[in-house]
Amino acid sequence: MRALVISDIHGNLEALNAVLAAAGEWDALWNLGDMVGYGASPNEVLDTIRPLATLTVRGNHDRVCSGLSSSLAFNPVARTAARWTLAALTPDNLVWLRMLPQGPLPPEGVDDVTLSHGSPLHEDQYIHTMRDAWASFQQMTTAITFFGHTHVQGGFSQQQHNWHELKPRYDRKQDADTWTLTMPEGTRHLINPGSVGQPRDYDWRAAFAIYDSEAREVVYHRVPYDLRRAQSRILMARLPGRLAERLREGR
Ligand code: ZN
Q1: Mean confidence (pLDDT) of the chain
Q2: Separation of CA 50 and ligand 1 centre (Å)
Q3: Span from the CA of 222 to the centroid of ligand 1 (angstroms)
Q4: Distance 37 CA to ligand 1 centre (A)
Q5: CA distances from 164 to 15, 81, 131, 133, 149 (A)
Q6: What is the pTM (predicted TM-score) of this model?
Q7: Please, are residues 12 and 196 in contact by the beta-carbon 8 Å criterion?
Q8: By the 8 A CB rule, do 209 and 220 touch?
Q9: CA 225 to CA 46: how far, in whole Å?
Q10: pLDDT of residue 158
Q11: Is the pLDDT of residue 171 over 90?
């Protein structure tokens, strides 16, 4: 099976369209949540992704932007965006967001894979460091967990006492880049496909991953998208200007 794995679209329609165009054919689309919040196209993103996603796990912004929990824990910019999104969502998209299941969840058709938004322990918990990863590895019941939330593409691998942080190495000589990771039998992995719509790893290009279950392989991707258009939508919606700026900085 070939699965397109995406996370953290955050209302960025231009980035989502670029990812879908670059992903080629896939058998399943696994969506790790945070489809809305920050970006100016929440309904357009949901209308695009809803019919395509095979399995979607809820993200913390999906929860807060649909009014299921308070935005008070967010920083002021995120809170402003969450309130704007809640007011902008169509009734149908609002209901759909509220019904989303919380991870971790196993996708159908493959063994040994779990999907979660934050760590497998909690949707709000970040996996940034080896220490965070260690705690998650203790709880993982499958060899592979796909997660998002940090907006940083990469992950962690474990083989007995050997631990590695994974960071795609791109040559950046072309507009679009790929980096392939093979996962031999006996290894365990936490894989972050990166953020489609608001990367924070100093690379502005939209991030995603393709998982091939037969080859036991993950291919990380970066693709350029119409950044100017996504930025001007944010400014025209009168969302905080910082949300437009950070897209170009990739942080
Ligand atoms: Zn997010």
Answers
A1: 96
A2: 18
A3: 17
A4: 8
A5: 29, 36, 12, 10, 20
A6: 0.97
A7: yes
A8: yes
A9: 18
A10: 94
A11: no
